Amino acid sequence: MRKSIIRTGAVLAGVLVAAPAFAQDLTFWSWRQEDRAAYEKFIETFEAANPGITVTFETFEAANYNTILSTALAGGTGPDVMMVRAYGGLENVAAAGYLEPLTTETVPALADFAAPAIAAESMRSDGAIYAVPFASQTQLVIYNKALFDANGIEEPQTWEELKAAAQKLKDAGVIPFANGTATAWQNETVTFGLGSSLMGKDFYDELMAGTTDFTDTRFTGALGQVAEVAAEYFPDGFIGLDYPSAQQLFSSGMAGMFIGGSYELATFKAQNLDIEMGVFAAPGENADDAKLVALYFDGGYAANAAGANKEASIKFLNYLASKEFGQAFADTLSNISTIPGVTFNDPLLAEVNDLNKSSIPYLMLAHFRYGEPSGSVMIQAEMQKLFAGETTPEAIGEALTTGLAAWYEPFKK
Amino acid sequence: MTGRGLWITALIVPPLAFVALFIVYPIVSAFAYAFFDWQGLRRLDFVGLENFHTVLFVEPYRSWTLNAFKNNVIVFFALMVLQNGLGFILAYALWRELPGARFHRIAVFLPVVLSTIIVAYLFKLFYHPLFGVVNISLKGLGLGFLAQPWLGQSGTALWSIIVAQAWHMVGFPTLVFLAGMQRIPGEILDAVRMETESEWVKITKIVWPLVAPSATIVFTLLFVGAFNWFELPYIMGGLDGSPFGSTDVLGLYFYRTAFGNVSSGQQDFGLGSALAVLIFIFIALVAGVITTRLRAREIQL
After folding, report:
1. What does DSSP assign to residue A104?
2. Which of B39, B154, B238 comes nearest A95 by C-beta?
């Protein structure tokens, strides 16, 4: 009798210890509703290699994702693994202590990631990494190959050539640039997608070093030139043109160029299967100025610090950081994976990946979204004013510098 | 307790509990949120009136608050004319049974039934700078110089949205005023007809004073609506009140501050709640004053 009690006890204890290994259900939250099918494929691959772990993929509306996520985490009903934003958006969630800090010991693959990618998913205060970065986005100029060929236009090497190309399109009755600036965030895209090479890497380095600020003529000069091109070569009434209409103008072939992110490529292809596109970095003043694109990281995969299945979550994160996943991610989702060593079948993506080698960070997102007022909100509003002729580039430089001084230490005097 | 007492308790307690749980509790807790420091959704220390001070007196919040408030005031007065004023005139025309009154009674009220989202997108298309019906019509009439990027200019954006709102809701005050006019007894009207033929005198001396109860309702609701305005500017101007804050209103500003937007990434429940509390107190006070003042001039028929 006694023996059987001990035996039963031992079996029960064994079951208790082994129970998590039997059935580990992970929930995985994302804002990428449109990528559901692809993610379910990735998850199948993972589950096949890791019997005993199942992953449920759940998606939420992108615009309110951060709110939904932080509410759930605060209430203790958060997911095990989740997509998180980068930079300031990450800090919002990570600063409250909801995310499991990652190290190269728990996720060894992180050691090989590029430093800017890691920085995007780290918190500034403790330097710890909180997520595996998943994709980079590049702000550049996308053009319609057929329209360029029909009008004998080559990818421009100087700012003058860019204007000449736009003029040629205009003379041919084609809208040179499809962009509109009624949607606030598009102003930031246009500014840095077109102006990064004009601002230059030196300006960026000095700004980061704290030896210059936004009143620098390299910055204000670039804003002036961007506004000049916009006034001349953007659609009629572009300040009242919203983002979806601008996309339609380009994908329908009514416009020759679109200043935007590499994420637009997939959208344009979906809107018009026949469109042939090319990409280039907006040029600087002279042909030998470095042609820079504005680069940033989209977000990452993080684990819940209070999750019940942390071990399985880390296992899943390791899969999400693997080259195998990165390759599948790049192939199915047409995105630039941040995982080193991934190759791109799509020639356009391969080109974007090449352009990324000469880049500066997408300035406001990467460095100036950590306080109020955010640099992004300010540049968006100020550029709208500039496009409407209600301010000057110099006044913008002044407004940005004094506005950001509210929380950005190097600007405090 | 007697049977009757039990019976009354059983009837009163459930609704009282419902109100306490779903109305009183959220309002009180929102008030409480405003007195704490927040990091994302994590509550930190008690900070007293710090949050109120920040949104009212510290830059950049101060100018954002003032700008949004100013726009709400413009919206209120503009809609008072375009929505309530027009509503009164329409109601009078319908009441006098001008030709086609039966058709127009329905036509005027129809937009009210439409979802705000639909109205917003519809007007966004109307105002489209390239393909919008407004600009195309202007160009067709040879008035191309009047064609504007309506939603992209600080001078026209807010007014464009106000017009959309007035079109959407003008049927509501019309209906309320019409109901008020139909309650005016026939004897009074007959008596007036003996005195004067002037429509103007009839409107100012008889109809307007006698529809005072309708005016009270319509004015108060408009006031509350104008200061809680959110859907139309959100869809047509965006969360930032594009362009550069010219369509920013308190509702958008509150949402941005409390929940953050993609371009700022900051969420601050403390400041957001402080704003919400201020908006609530302001609306409650002024609506209270408006109601008592307007009630005083109502006449019992």
Report:
1. T
2. B39
Out of A93, A238, A382, closest to residue B40 by CB: A93
Question: Among all residues of chain B, which has the CA nearest to that of A298?
Answer: B262
Helix (H) or strand (E) holding A168: helix A159-171
Of A185, A245, A370, the CB nearest to B262: A185
Query: If you count residue pairs, one on A and one on B, with CB atoms under 8 Å apart, how many are there?
Result: 142
With respect to residue B264, please indicate whether it lies within any of the assigned structural domains. yes
Per-residue pLDDT of chain B in tens (301 residues, 90 and over written 9): 678 888 988 899 998 999 888 888 888 888 888 888 887 666 778 888 888 988 898 888 888 999 999 999 999 999 999 999 999 999 999 998 888 888 988 898 999 999 999 999 999 999 998 888 998 898 888 887 888 888 888 889 999 999 999 999 999 999 999 999 999 888 888 888 888 888 888 888 888 888 988 999 999 999 999 999 999 999 998 888 888 889 999 999 998 888 777 777 677 888 888 999 999 999 999 999 999 988 888 776 6
Q: Is some CB atom of chain A closer than 8 A to the CB atom of B127?
A: yes
State which H helix or E strand residue A155 sits in: none
Distance from CA of B131 to the nearest CA of A (A): 10
CATH code, domain with B221? 1.10.3720.10
Describe chain A by its helix, strand, coil percentages, rounded to 5: 50, 15, 30
Q: Which distant-in-sequence residues (6+ apart) come within 8 Å of B105 by Cβ?
A: B94, B178
Domains and CATH numbers, chain A: 22-135+298-346 (3.40.190.10), 137-295+357-411 (3.40.190.10)
Spatial distance between the Cα atoms of A319 and A213, rounded to a whole number of angstroms: 42
